[in-house]
What does this fold into?
Amino acid sequence: METQTRYDLNAAIENWRAELAAQPNLTAEVRRELETHLRDTIAGFQQRGLNDEESFWLARRRVGQPPQLGEEFVKANPTAVWRERVFWMTLALLAYSLWNMVTNTTTGVLINAVSNWWALHSHSGSNYWFGLNPIVSGSIMTAFRLLPLCLVTIFLLKSPLNENSRFASFFYSRKNVIILAITIIGLHCWLIVMGWHDSRSRIHESTAKVTIQTASLWLNLMSFVVWPLALTTLTVWLMPKQNRKTPKRA
Amino acid sequence: MYKASMLAKDMVAASAKPLLLSILAEGESYGYEIIQKVRELSGGQIEWSDGMLYPVLHRLERDGLIESEWKEADTGRQRKYYFISRDGRKALKTERQQWLTVHNTLGKLWKHKPVTI
It folds into this structure.
């Protein structure tokens, strides 16, 4: 008796995608567009009565060989690939910079809260957290800062970070990046100013010292604002063109 | 860039821009549909290699003659639609005049009736 194995069309498309992804000259958007084209061509052949395997191989042939496609695209736009690479690098730098802001703020707030609570409730007379020495408590705080970053890195490495994923498409939106960056930068600056006001209200100092304090506050704010804002601007500018705006038809 | 079954390669390459602009002037479209339309209109004489269409579309987009937008198709999948821009319409007008000049000149030489815009 003859047995027939069913052709796995999805697996074949997945392999084709992997071949395409190996071409350094094809951007994520181009790969996505070519895949849509391949699927349309397959559907066209299937409607004409061809089976899955025949449809796939004919469609694949029609679309072209991945290395050949890569060469054609690099001829048409040599800078596109590098633009996208620099975009992801800038986005990573921006994310790191914003992450530092968030953790600086939260660890500061947490250290104060826990230290105050411990000072009030401990009978040991020690100001260290739960009686831990500064090295141990410092290590806990470092772990608190780095652990989520490690988890995000593992998630990115393990998950298929492709152009269709929700994670990637979130950062392909100019609006999302701007809102996220401005919120974190704004929140951080607000906390710095609040901290400065708090220290100013508690300590009565000479005018000269206050001027120096104010100048250092401005320097602090500038250093926290300028770099992330510059990165945000660069990221938005480098962002691949799709979804940056709603096009107006002629 | 193109493989031509009937038409010379250079001819196919030169006509790509006016063909694409003319198709998109009729309404938005996507790669697969454009190729089908060209094949159908030319009676199979203009055969574009599927994957090679996109570099041309992207070049036209970079030149500001067409624009694109990802939209959900009837199948539920996202598809990139192209449509002509204002500059594209102007460019199409120029292209049309130039191609008709060539057509009319050849028509006179070959004793065909001239075509007007």
Notes: The mean pLDDT of chain A is 74. Chain A is about 75% helix and 0% strand. Chain A touches chain B at residues 30, 32-34, 36-37, 39-41, 43-44, 62-64, 68-69, 72-73, 75-77, 80, 164, 241-243, 246-247, 249-250 (CB under 8 Å).
